[in-house]
Amino acid sequence: MLHDRVLVRTDTTEGERRSSGGIVIPATAQVGKRLSWAEVVAVGQNVRSVEAGDRVLYDPEDRGEVEVRGVAYVLLRERDLHAVAAERLEGVDSTGLYL
């Protein structure tokens, strides 16, 4: 990875979802702008706040998709990330979530 790039693997499946009340929402339903979570696979040398294994929140519309050995990944800039959930921060008197 080069510069400020972050390679992530999305963990959501496209398809129908359920609301908190149990109502099934079909995949074809139009919903408002929704951010997505993904797992960081690799980072460039200039990335400061994210490490491999972290989960990040990003806008699915600001992405570049790439396929490596048959697996689909998303390529993002560090500045396009909205939040970072890091396991390594547990026990540091914080939630482990950067906003």
TrEMBL record:
Q: Which residues form a coiled coil?
A: none
Disordered: where is this region?
1-21
- Which protein family is named in the record? Belongs to the GroES chaperonin family.
Task: Note the Pfam families from the entry.
Answer: Cpn10
Q: Could you read off the lineage of the organism from its UniProt record? A: Bacteria, Bacillati, Actinomycetota, Actinomycetes, Kitasatosporales
Molecular function GO terms recorded: ATP binding; metal ion binding; protein folding chaperone; protein-folding chaperone binding; unfolded protein binding
User: Does the keyword field hold Chaperone?
Assistant: yes
InterPro entries attached to this UniProt entry: Chaperonin_GroES, Chaperonin_GroES_sf, GroES-like_sf
Compositional bias (Basic and acidic residues): 1-19
Tell me what organism the protein belongs to: Streptomyces smaragdinus
The superkingdom listed in its UniProt entry is Bacteria
Q: What is this protein called?
A: 10 kDa chaperonin 1
Q: Which UniProt keywords apply?
A: Chaperone
